[in-house]
Specification:
The protein is α+β, with helices and mostly antiparallel strands. It has 38 helices and 35 strands. The protein is 43% helix and 18% strand. 40% of the residues are buried. β12, α19 (444-458) and β13 (471-473) form a beta-alpha-beta unit.
Amino acid sequence: MTTLETAYAEIQKLVQRFKSLPAAERKGMNENATRQGYILPLFRALGWNVDNVNEVSPEEKVSRGWVDFSFRIGGIPRFFLETKKASEDLNDPRWVQQAIDYAWTKSVTWALLSDFEGLRVFNAEWKETDPFRAQFLDFNLESYLTNFERLWWFSREETLAGRLEREADKVGKRIKRLPVSQHLFDDLKLWRSELYQSLRGYNPLYSPAQIDEAVLRLLNRLIFIRTAEDRDVEPMRLMPLLRELEDRRQLDKLSEKLAELFCQFDATYNSELFAPHFSEELYCDRLPLEALIRGLYEKNFVRYNFNALEADVLGTAYEQYLGHVVTEVQSETGLLAAASHVDEKRLKRKSQGIYYTPAFVTRYIVQQTVSHWLDEHGYNPSTPPRILDMACGSGSFLIEAFDTLDRFVATQRHQAYGEDDTLHDNLRRLELLNQCIFGVDKDKQAVDVARLNLMLRALHGRQKMPLLENIYHADSLRPETWQQAFPAIMNPSTGSAGGFDVIIGNPPYVRIQTLDKSEVEYFNQNFVTATGNYDIYVLFVEQALRLLKSGGVIGFILPNKFMQTDYGKGLRKLLSEKKAVWKIVDFGDAQVFENATTYTCLLFLRKAANERIVYGLAEPIIRQGSVSQLNDNELHTFEVDASRFSADPWTLTGTGQNTVMDKLLAGNPLMSDIASRMFQGIRTSANEIYVLDVIKEDGGILELQSKSLGKRVSLERNLLKPFLRGEDIKAYSITKPTRYVLIPYSTEGGKAELIPSSTFKREFPLCWKYLLENRTVLEDREDGKMKHENWYAFVYPKNLDQFGQPKLITPDIASRSSFSLDEDGNYTFVSGYGIVLNSSIPYDLRYVLALLNSRALDFYLKKISSRLQQGFYRYFSQYIAHLPIRRIDFANPAEKSAHDEIVKMVEEMLGLQKQHQQAEAAKEDVRFSLQKRIEALDKEIDVRVYRLYGLTEEEIRIVEGAG
């Protein structure tokens, strides 16, 4: 084991041996001898396994500007090292810039440069025009030992602990360079706007959509060419062309000459990307083209290396591109766009459900599906695996799948035939792209980008490129798509089962309320998972199962809500009946997507009868901070029997928790069995008018503040009800309301009726006058649909007849059970639910209140409810309905006594809570004493409830340990 002491001793020996070399021998030592004899042994002494290519990985020398080694932990680069021969001049800015640019392009913070006589450390994230100003540390033969404490920061142990990053933060808040993905997107955004404006201005007969298509085609072509240059597949083509035209003073012909270059690339690569396209007919001013070409090399002291760009970097930049649209600013005449700018189109993102998947999620899903499939089946070119992404976007999942497949087949063939052969490597990649990779997306721009990204994975020589017709522009939820796009797969002539072997991806998250009615009607008629107010990702899961070959696997990232919500019932039923689930990795309330609050999980399905399901909780890993890799050994996992899954909400818990839940449930009625109604809070449709703040509430006339009128008003108490917000409702207590709601309805015979205007004017003149002052706003509700004689009615007058009854109430979102009692039916509320018991049920409301507020049933609810951020849960009626209420046999004296004792304890609790509220102005010791008694009584009630359900000491520990 490497320790600080052993490392010091080893490095001391290295330094002494190097110093003892004759000057001539030291000067004549080449780079490899320096590297193998001294530089790598230095890092070996620091605890790195330099002989393990998975830990210290040599970078391929296939491009100008690539460094020598990446130091990795868990497959993730932590820093890069560029080695030089002894006595090399480390002050040469070429080497420094090369190391920094490479690290930045690879999204890695640290770049190291060493000839062993010196070791220089640069922070590639610091925004410096002079690369030497990005230097963080500098060692030489003497300071390796005199400054050994800092050298130890580069040990494997300290690197894993993030020591470098912590120390860098101490030197001050330097301006940080934008991450390469963000920088590239910002450039793409600027180039897109400038190109669009030029093309639109010079080519007015083309539509905005055509102009935007032409811009994307041009950008894709130029990025392909730059990548070919940086991989040494092509000589430098763009800058020489620019300089030649500049020398000849013919830059106005740049657009024309680029079209000629594209024609040459079409002849070489025979790809759809360079095939004749209407964009070549368009004239573009030289200035945006010139700025674009120069920017693809270097801009603002940032150098792009397109060979070193990771797939997820390009994918991230392009995914942001696809989530934006060009907005035109019309000229004064209105005929042409005077200017344009590119803005994020949240409606497009929302309507298409676009969320770019983080690289660690993509890698894990591919590992669990593609890698597992290959491990089980191997690769046979006569029956290649068919891998599909049904909403491929920019192609990130397909790229990761292709890379995984390529590595597997390369290793397989290397073991069979020996050394690699460049020609066969290229042929292999083309074969895999054509035979194994399939994608569909309804966004044409996304399809074009996905094709480009996949082509770039295969671009390693001047050869014909695939047309990639397997990346198809269509709607994945339409059956004709699959027959038209992939008939050989869906109807194989071989007689073998049709379908795909692996389906992966991130289906769109779109609620049906945002869709066209005819589209929703189609979905409702053709998908069994179309239940409730569903999200279309459930349809994608159903469609994927239809398209999957028997024994095939699916890996999706999608919202975890389907496991509990009403709209997930259809999907739960389908998956449980088919026993299709084999693994779930749940992120809980930890956020995976940037700039979006979405509660997600990874759902893995296998088209086979899966009797056991692996459930893993990844939430703690995500909460630790930035995640670069997801490993099974870091997940908190357990197995669940498939028989526990049904159309009912899924409870995914370990064996001990399952036992507790089974005991709580055994033989007891559910809340839905004993409640006559569980209803939502009031919806006025105009809170700023109907809900008013209290100023003075003595007598029959209340003095209130109206937000809509911005003044005080006096209104009759008879039409006003105390109005609670969710946060006003707590366990066993109700905060004194500071608002009232005006309800223009009367409740007679158990039915709420709108008070006629004539009665209103006569009996409640102050309220009527107030409503008249707000008449215009009230009539304009629902786009003017309230312009009729009942203009003062609520748009959605639901449940108004329920509020006047004795009831239990709860906020709809809370961190723990917060049920309270409205014994006299005094309160209305918003953001919550009310519960009215069936009149035939003999249980006292206080008894049910104790159970609902107990830790036992709160434990149960949190296992079936949706979890939100910061430890909050949904206390919706659909979850409350499934809570088991302990059955009481009132003919049994012991059980009746247990019921009555709990009722008395709750009565005491309600009284204590009222005293505590009224004691705000009392002495601190009085309030403290009340609070201590409330806490003690709460624990006593919990003990009674545990005893009532028959929980053992071990089961109680499970409940209380679950938080």
